Amino acid sequence: MKKLFLLSAVVLGCWTAQAQQLPLISNYLNTAYLFNPAYSGIEGKTEISVLNRRQWTDIQGAPETQFMAFNGNRDDLKFGYSGYAFNDQTDIVARSGFYGSYAWHVKFTDRNSLSLGLGAGYVNNNINVAGIRVPDELDPVLFSALNTGKFDLNFGFNLQFGDFSFGAAVPNLLAPKVDFSDNYLGPMQYHYMRHYVVSTQYDVNLQKGLMTLSPFITVRANEVTNPQVDAGLMFNHKEYFYVGAAYRSSYAVTANTGLHLTEKITLGYAYDFSLNTYGFALGNSHEFMLRYTFGESKKDKRLENEIKKLKDRQRRSSEELEDFLNDRLDEFNDEVSSKQNELFEQEKAELQSQLDEAKAEINSRIKGYSTEQYAGQVKPGSPGYYVTAGVYGQEENAHKLESKLLADGIAVDIFQDQNNMMYYVFILKFPDYDSAHEAQLTKFNGQYNGSLWIKVIK
């Protein structure tokens, strides 16, 4: 009888561990690389994350999970890497291990890419004999080998088309078998099930990328159980906070919230409310996440470098044109005689006018204004009336708009108001308010499609 009791406890523990083969977390949008190695380093950041989850708080021996993970990439953004260690315990059954992943990011264009990732790890499976209760504490079954480890692989990919992404992963790729004691009725064995995780997400950028609204769907499946579908919505204000909610089929409703305490530190919390028949008896689930980001985003840094290169190319083009026209002026000066001075002066004036117009045309496709009014020809932040295309609290967001307008052929520049510390992206500067107001209302005589504001610097 006692042998049957012990065997039942071990079987129950193994069944519970099998049902929890993929640790369940609700912050996976912030740590997608934990289950799909293709996401390793995809954001261009180096970061460390710590997660702690307690599930079904009213049940003794309910699942508890901890993760410690890091994520980063190479400077060229072509390769990413990640790794994590975890501990997942359900009553007397515990699993702990570590995985390392490597990803290859292939860019087709600036907004379209394919990522492939492969992860490898070692997982140790343990049944806590001290938690098994039998009448005879000297029963030899208690001294059986109830601790064993296995090697496994994960594979995944992700396709990025603009703001839309589609990815899939196969955790437990090798599906290894785990053997425990073979005392009495034969070997105690269960095997890892090969899982399939498919996810899709669309990012709606608001306020020129400062905020993002992201609907998402994630489907988990294996060879035995019914597929589980997560469908939700996440809103992220990149400077201050994020908040979201999701429905997890046949399980729970999840609420996510987090604060970007600084540019480098994010604190997140997730709450699961069970919807099944025993939801009120099981209790709810709580999950905490802490993330620290090192340095600047390599994507943002590369964008700043591209802006600098674009400015340098514009400056060189302007200088080359000026040198060319000055050479022509010098040639005319050598060729004309004293009798042609009047004609020379007239042509010189015309060439100078062409030079001024050419400078303006190189610097901007906005035409019809004096050269000294264009961005690049004025001292940013000097007194005057600036017609601006955007204002931001963070300099990197101002540079993003600057890059977009420069690529569209519109010359812009940036200055910071020392009174409110905001960054202004301006197109033209005027000596009086009326001229600036007219340019704003007419949108530079119909040559600009976006919104415009006037910034006054005394």
Q: Which bin fits the share of residues in helices?
A: 10-25%
Overall geometry comes to elongated
Query: Which strand-content bin applies to the residues?
Result: 35-45%
**Would you tell me the overall average pLDDT?**
82
Low-confidence stretches: 1-20
Write the H/E string, N to C: HEEEEEEEEEEEEEEEEHEHHEHEEHE
Give the strand line-up of the largest sheet. Answer: 1-2-3-4-5-6-7-10-12-13-14-15-16-17
CA distance, first residue to last residue: 92 Å
Q: Summarize the main sheet.
A: 14 strands, antiparallel, barrel
Name given to the CATH homologous superfamily of the largest domain? monomeric porin ompg
Total number of distinct structural domains: 2
Calculate Rg over CA atoms: 32 Å
CATH topology of the largest domain: Porin
Instruction: Give the CATH architecture of the largest domain.
Output: Beta Barrel
Annotation, overall tally of beta strands: 21
The number of helical segments is 6
CATH class of the largest domain: Mainly Beta
Oligomeric description of these chains: single chain
| Overall SS class | alpha+beta
Question: What do you see in this structure?
Answer:
- It is a single chain.
- The chain is built from six helices and 21 strands.
- The N and C termini lie far apart (92 Å).
- It has helices spanning 2-19, 279-282, 298-335, 341-363, 395-407, 433-446; strands spanning 46-54, 64-73, 79-90, 93-107, 112-127, 147-161, 164-170, 177-179, 189-191, 195-202, 204-206, 211-222, 228-237, 241-248, 252-260, 265-274, 285-294, 384-392, 413-416, 423-430, 453-457.
- Residues 1-20 have low confidence and may be disordered.
- It is elongated.
- It folds into two domains: 2-295, monomeric porin ompg (Porin, Beta Barrel); 301-457, 2-Layer Sandwich (Alpha-Beta Plaits).
- The longest helix is centred in the C-terminal third of the chain and has 38 residues, at 298-335.
- α3 runs antiparallel to α4 (341-363) and α3 crosses α5.
- A 14-stranded antiparallel β-barrel has the order 1-2-3-4-5-6-7-10-12-13-14-15-16-17.
- The protein is α+β, with helices and mostly antiparallel strands and 458 residues long.
